[in-house]
User: Which sequence fits this backbone?
C-alpha cells in the first residue's frame, strides 16, 4: 500500500486535468480534485497554514472551493477513509433530519409541544409549554448543569436517558434563556424516533446519507435504542465536507431536494447572540453556529462575510461560506477554542480571485511537501 502522504502529494499534482472535466458534477461518488490555483487560491498560503497548525493538535483538514477538493491533510492518527468522532457536530445533523421530517409531514410543526410526545409533561404548568423549536436553539428552560458536564454525565450513566431528561425541572420559561443542553438535543432525537417510527440513524441512512453517498458512518444509541441526538456520530472528513456542501447548496443535491430550502434558511436565522472571550460576537440558529469573517481577512473584502458552521468539542468543525463557495472541514483534539477559527482565517487568506490563477509548479510542490510533513504530526 502506498504511503498516504505520498498519495496525497500525487493527487495535487494531477488536479488540473481533473478540473478540466465538463458538465454538472456532484461529489456523491467522491470529490473531484483541483489545484488551489485553478479555484483562485494560493497553494503557498495553504502550505503555510498546514505548517502553522500541524503542532496544534489538528488531526485533519479538507478544503473545498467551487465544489472541488483543493487540499486535504491527515496526521498520524487518521486518514481519509477513517470515520472520526465529530462530537456535537452531530447536533447539526439532528437539525437537518428535523427539517426532513417536517417536509415529509412526520412532524406537524416546530410549534408542536413536546408534551404531545411525552404526556408526562402535560400537567406541568411550565414544561407543558416547551415546543420543538425551543429544543432546536437550546431555550427549553430545563435546568441543565454544564459545569464539568454534570447533567450530560448523569444522563449517560442513567438506565433510561430520555426519562432522565424528562425528570429535569424547569428553571426558566421556554424561549426566554439560552442554556446549552445535550438533553434538549437528545430529547429531539426521541421525538423524531416516535414521529418517523424508526431510529434517527436509520432515518438518516435513507433520507440524508444515502443520497449523498455517505455509507462509512457510525452513530451510537442510548440503552433504549434512541440515536444519540447530541453527540456520538463518526464521519470521514470528506463526508463532513459533503454535509457542508449540501448546506451551501441550500439542501439541493444532484437535482433532488434533500433538505427543503426554507428549512435551511430558517435554520440559519440568528436566534441567540454569543459574546466570546476574544471580543468577537456570533450567534446560534437551529443547532448551527453563525459568525462573520471580519473585513480584510479575505483580500479586498470591505464588509463582513457571513459564515455558518457545525461545531464539536475539541475543534471539530464544518465551516461554510456561501459567498466564497468555500467549505472547510476540520477535526482536532484541541482545547484552544480559538484555533478552528484561526485556521479558517488562514484558509480564507489564500483566496485571491474568483477566476483561475496561473499555474505555479513551485507552489504546488510546497503544498505537496506540507501535506507530506503534516502526516508526521502527533498530538502535543
Assistant:
Amino acid at each position: 500500500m502506498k504511503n498516504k502522504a505520498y498519495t496525497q502529494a500525487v493527487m495535487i499534482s494531477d488536479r488540473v486535468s481533473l478540473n478540466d472535466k465538463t458538465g454538472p458534477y456532484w461529489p456523491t461518488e467522491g470529490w473531484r480534485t483541483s489545484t488551489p490555483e485553478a479555484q483562485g487560491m494560493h497553494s503557498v498560503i495553504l502550505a503555510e497554514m498546514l505548517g502553522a497548525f500541524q503542532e496544534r493538535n489538528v488531526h485533519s483538514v479538507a478544503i473545498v472551493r467551487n465544489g472541488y477538493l483543493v487540499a486535504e491533510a491527515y496526521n498520524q492518527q487518521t486518514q481519509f477513509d477513517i470515520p472520526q468522532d465529530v462530537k456535537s457536530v452531530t447536533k447539526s445533523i439532528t437539525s437537518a433530519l428535523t427539517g426532513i421530517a417536517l417536509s415529509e409531514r412526520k412532524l406537524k410543526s416546530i410549534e408542536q409541544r413536546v408534551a404531545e410526545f411525552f404526556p408526562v409533561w402535560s400537567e406541568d404548568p411550565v414544561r407543558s409549554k416547551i415546543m420543538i423549536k425551543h429544543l432546536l436553539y437550546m431555550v427549553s428552560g430545563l435546568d441543565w448543569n454544564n459545569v464539568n458536564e454534570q447533567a450530560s454525565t448523569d444522563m449517560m450513566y442513567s438506565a433510561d436517558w430520555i426519562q432522565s431528561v424528562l425528570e429535569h425541572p424547569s428553571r426558566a420559561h421556554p424561549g426566554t434563556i439560552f442554556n446549552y443542553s445535550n438533553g434538549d438535543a437528545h430529547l429531539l432525537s426521541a421525538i423524531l424516533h416516535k414521529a418517523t417510527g424508526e431510529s434517527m440513524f436509520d432515518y438518516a441512512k435513507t433520507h440524508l446519507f444515502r443520497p449523498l453517498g455517505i455509507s462509512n458512518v457510525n452513530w451510537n444509541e442510548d440503552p433504549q435504542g434512541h440515536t444519540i441526538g447530541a453527540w456520538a456520530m463518526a464521519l470521514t472528513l470528506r463526508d463532513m465536507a459533503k454535509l457542508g456542501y449540501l448546506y451551501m447548496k441550500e439542501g439541493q443535491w444532484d437535482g433532488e431536494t434533500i433538505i427543503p430550502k426554507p428549512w435551511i434558511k430558517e435554520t440559519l436565522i440568528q436566534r441567540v447572540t454569543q459574546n466570546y472571550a476574544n471580543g468577537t460576537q456570533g450567534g446560534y440558529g437551529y443547532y448551527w453556529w453563525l459568525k462573520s469573517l471580519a473585513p480584510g481577512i479575505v483580500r479586498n473584502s470591505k464588509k463582513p462575510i457571513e459564515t455558518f458552521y457545525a461545531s464539536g468539542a475539541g475543534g471539530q468543525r464544518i465551516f461554510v461560506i456561501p459567498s466564497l463557495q468555500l467549505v472547510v472541514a476540520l477535526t482536532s483534539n484541541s482545547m484552544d477554542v480559538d484555533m478552528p477559527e484561526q485556521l479558517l482565517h488562514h484558509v480564507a487568506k489564500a483566496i485571491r480571485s474568483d477566476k483561475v490563477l496561473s499555474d505555479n509548479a513551485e507552489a504546488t510542490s510546497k503544498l505537496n511537501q506540507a501535506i507530506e510533513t503534516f502526516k508526521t504530526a502527533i498530538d502535543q
About this structure: The longest helix spans residues 89-103. The chain has two domains: 36-85+237-376, 88-234.
